[in-house]
Amino acid sequence: MTTWTADELERISTADELDIAPQRRDGSLRKPTTIWVVRDGDNLFVRSWRGSDGMWFRTADSSRAGRVSAGGVTRDVTFAEEADPAVNDRIDAAYRSKYGHYSGYVEPMVANTARATTLKLLPC
């Protein structure tokens, strides 16, 4: 399995936003959607602000593949579910720490509807 390099982790995790383009059933990529990304150790995570109603999330959840770009890094990825409550608690803390200055937007990102859409980005 491929892993993120230290440089990729740093550049992506410190970028304010990430462009995510999940793969459709026909193999083409959706138009990129700009979202937030956080880091926990050597892993990168994303969530859907709209919960499971988010179109990018529904495509990613179905295909489990796509491409991300942030901080000058572009990589094909696999999307993996994260069900460990302890990891989700740390991801909540990461969202609050990184994006807390965006009042009104962080709380929906740590609510149960968004937590249920937590995806780990695994580089291909």
From TrEMBL:
It holds the Pfam family DUF2255. This is DUF2255 family protein.
